[in-house]
Design goal:
InterPro entries: ClpP/crotonase-like_dom_sf, Enoyl-CoA_hydra/iso, Enoyl-CoA_Hydratase/Isomerase. This is Enoyl-CoA hydratase-related protein. Belongs to the enoyl-CoA hydratase/isomerase family. It holds the Pfam family ECH_1. The protein is an alpha/beta fold. Helices cover about 40% and strands about 15% of the residues. It contains eleven helices and ten strands. The strands form two sheets. Strands 1-2-3-5-7-10 form a six-stranded mixed beta sheet, sandwiched between helices. Strands 4-6-8-9 form a four-stranded mixed beta sheet. Helix 9 packs antiparallel against helix 10. The relative contact order is 0.11.
């Protein structure tokens, strides 16, 4: 395992936990930090025993977005020569995942921090968390965040968040449909979701993510024939056969990811 400067990774059975670990800079990401996140997610993506990716962060701020100084002046960045550099945005990095991901926000999400939070399949937040897009206050616009917001909100609602640049609460984020749930003290809903995902067939879920990406590129008249062909391929897998056997025997599937 390569040494990482800005993120930490650990395994909890079938769950791969990636933690943003630059709290002294409010977890603002540098080019190297983006490369480290990409490296860690690639490890998780390629590991057949990983069924879920969980994103956490150290400190009182989940992520304050881009470290503008490091992007403007590479000498400020703490380069990690052991990690391959990537020329992609965080949204592009997360979009390559073939596995479900859950982002657990325990501190404020600011500006480009949305790129991580909204890129995950599920987003949870503590009740006190605030979300803000302040870019317009310094003469910028959250272009990449807008693309993600449009997956959750109507166009005018998404633009309104970017134009106002004001902050909103976790409760408001839930009402807007950005959050899956607000965490309680026991985090019971999060634990139940993770257990459900880990119990289900990982190969089927992975194929679902791959099909979703391909589906976006298909013409309207090709979509259903494409999906039927994907279903036929999945029916030939060992996991489908095991799933049918487990169903008949009223037990959980013993998944081999094959």
């Amino acid at each position: 395992m390569e040494k990482l400067n800005f993120v930490k990774i650990q395994r909890e059975q079938h769950v791969f936990v990636l933690t943003l670990a630059r709290p002294e800079k409010r977890n603002a990401f540098t080019p190297t930090m983006v490369s480290e996140i990409a490296y860690a997610l690639r490890l998780a993506n390629e590991d057949p025993t990983v069924r879920l990716i969980q994103i956490e962060a150290e400190g009182s701020v989940f992520c304050a977005g881009m470290d503008l100084k490091a992007f403007e002046d590479p000498s400020v960045d703490n380069i990690n020569p052991r990690i391959p550099e990537v020329d992609k945005s965080l949204a592009e990095v997360f979009a390559e995942l073939n596995k479900p991901s859950v982002c657990v926000v325990r501190g404020d999400v600011i500006a480009g921090g949305f790129l991580i939070a909204l890129s995950c399949t599920y987003l949870f937040a503590l009740p006190h968390v605030r979300f803000s897009l302040p870019e317009v206050k310094i003469g910028l616009f959250p272009f990449q965040v807008l693309a993600l917001l449009l997956e959750y909100l109507p166009e005018r609602k998404a633009m309104d968040l970017c134009i106002r640049g004001s902050s909103f609460s976790a409760e408001e984020a839930l009402t807007k449909g950005l959050l899956h749930a607000i965490l309680d003290d026991q985090e019971g809903e999060l634990k139940a979701l993770k257990a459900t995902i880990v119990d289900n067939a990982p190969l089927a879920i992975s194929k679902g993510f791959i099909a979703l990406r391909k589906l976006r590129q298909k013409a309207e008249g090709e979509k259903y024939s494409f999906l039927l062909s994907e279903l036929a391929l999945l029916r030939e897998t060992d996991d489908f056969k095991e799933g049918m056997t487990a169903f008949r025997e009223k037990r959980k599937g013993n998944w081999q990811n094959s």
